């Protein structure tokens, strides 16, 4: 028993030591990424692309410049990313609540241990008490933990029900489709066109003032402030559609349509990554969600050759001079997400 106890103490101490030594190195590594982000012209980092540029039916959509620290990881960050959806804000509150519950319990147990170790050590207490039952204390140590569990269960179950709330019948449906190794975004309620989204190279991302390995050529554009019915599926292997700042992660399984409500509070660019090991280029199929006000979203849809409900009454139509729709199979040749042709392994 003595050896086991010592072993555990040594293991905990070395883990703590490794964390203290490792943390500055990780911060230093991330610092380079921040420097690159800081070089973005503040004028470019305006929240919304020029509203003049996206009048109804125009193809003058300009990708919105991301805001540093919003919808993306930050150097040296140790907390959950700031949340931009109602469910995410609720989940973040639960995370902080759980943190303090754990802090209080840990300090309480530590204080009890220290008290017992010093107060009842052999020299101070040579004849140990033989007490084995105490009804009052047994009731307390049963009821108090039960109440603590209840105080955790209520917000926890509320969060689950919020996450899987059925979207309203009039919610816009958008479908995210995982491919090896890029994403496709279909808009069945807007004329069923599909956008193919490949990762940008480091040079292209830097040129656009976006974080590389997160920036993509064509973003998943969504309307802000309204509930969306987001369906997630895959064409080849299992992927996972995940955007940390929007509290969304759902497996993309071939032959299966997973669905969850998806809502972005405010316009902005929010980055995520495939979160299911899906093959050789799993790490190079990022997600970039761009949330736009509804009128700008409609203008973007029309610029892609899509349709908008009620567009006839409003007098806006798709521009017939625009290029044809992209097909799901058209991962741009040579693009970073497109992957390399299979290589024959020579027989040994
Ligand atoms: Cu994947």
UniProtKB/TrEMBL annotation:
Region (Disordered): 312-348
Membrane topology: Multi-pass membrane protein
Record's catalysed reaction(s): 4 Fe(II)-[cytochrome c] + O2 + 8 H(+)(in) = 4 Fe(III)-[cytochrome c] + 2 H2O + 4 H(+)(out)
A Pfam family the protein falls into: COX2
E.C. designation(s): 7.1.1.9
InterPro entries linked to this entry: CcO_II, CcO_II-like_C, CcO_II_C, Copper_CuA, Cupredoxin, Cyt_c_oxidase_su2, Cyt_c_oxidase_su2_TM_dom, Cyt_c_oxidase_su2_TM_sf
NCBIfam families in the cross-refs: CoxB (TIGR02866)
Protein name: Cytochrome c oxidase subunit 2
Lineage: Bacteria, Pseudomonadati, Pseudomonadota, Alphaproteobacteria, Sphingomonadales
Gene: coxB
